[in-house]
Amino acid sequence: MTPFKRFFDIISAIVLGTVLLPVMIVVAAMILLRDGRPIFYVAERMKTPTQAFGLIKFRTMRPVIGDSGVSGGDKRSRLTRTGGMLRARRLDELPQILNVLKGDISLVGPRPPLRVYVQRFPQIYARVLQSRPGITGLATLYFHEHEEFLLASCRDAAETDRVYAGRCVPRKAKIDLIYQRNRSFCYDWEIMLKTVFRRLR
Questions:
Q1: DSSP string, the chain
Q2: Over the stretch 50-102, which tens digit does the pLDDT of each residue have?
Q3: Which class for 26: exposed (0-12), middle (13-18), buried (19 or more C-beta within 10 A)?
Q4: C-alpha to C-alpha distances, 31 to 16, 42, 61, 88, 90, nearest whole angstrom
Q5: Would you say the C-alpha torsion 24, 193, 107, 174 has a positive or negative sign?
C-alpha cells in the first residue's frame, strides 16, 4: 500500500465514521434489544499470506462454539432477527471502518480471505494479497451477489466448502487480479461510488 493510499484511507475512514456513527449506534441498539449480546462478531481473516487479523462486524448469527468457514445456506437457520436485514444492506460491515483505521484493510481491495483457503491455495493468494484487502473491491462489486446465489443452496458445511473452493475462489481471484493490474486512486473512487450506488439502489 502506498503512503498516499494509506493517508486517503485514514481521512476517508474518519469522515465516514463520523457520518455513519448515528447509523451504527442505531444498528447496535437494534441488535442489543432484539437479539441480545454480543453486538459484534470478530472473525479471523488474512491480510497477507502469513498475517492474520480480527475483522469486526455486527453480529448477524446466533453464536456457535467452534463455528468457522464460509456462510452458506447451511447456516441460514442461525440468522438472527436483524441479521438478514443487515446482510442484505451490508450494514453488518460498517464496523470495518475501525479495521481501516488500524491498517488491517483498505477501503478498496480484495475481500480478506479465511486462513484455510490461503493455506489451501497458496499460489492464488500469494498474488491476490499483494494488494491490501478492502471493505469493497472489484470482485465484491461484480461477483458478491452471484457468490451468495451459489452458496445459498448449499445444505451442509462440506457442500459450502466445495462450492466456495471450486467455484468462488478462482473466479474472485481473477477479478481481484484485474483490479491489481489497474489499481489507481481514480479506479478506487470509481469502485467506491459504484458500491455506494448499488447499496442505495
A1: --HHHHHHHHHHHHHHHHHHHHHHHHHHHHHHHHT-S--EEEEEEESSSS-EEEEEEE--B---TT--S---GGGGGGB-TTHHHHHHTTGGGTTHHHHHHHTSSEEESSPPPPHHHHHH-HHHHHHHTTSPPEEE-HHHHHHHHHHHHHHHT--SHHHHHHHIIIIIHHHHHHHHHHHHHH--HHHHHHHHHHHHHHHH-
A2: 999 999 999 999 987 767 778 888 888 899 989 989 998 889 999 999 999 99
A3: exposed
A4: 21, 15, 11, 15, 15
A5: positive
Closest CA to 93 of 55, 147, 53, 44: 55
Q: Please tell me the pTM assigned to this model.
A: 0.91
**Amino acid identity, residue 49?**
P
How far, in Å, CA of 137 to CA of 30, rounded?
A: 28
Scanning the structure block, which residue is given the C-alpha cell 470495518? 96
Cell of residue 197, nine digits = 450506488
In whole angstroms, give the CA distance from residue 23 to residue 27. Answer: 6
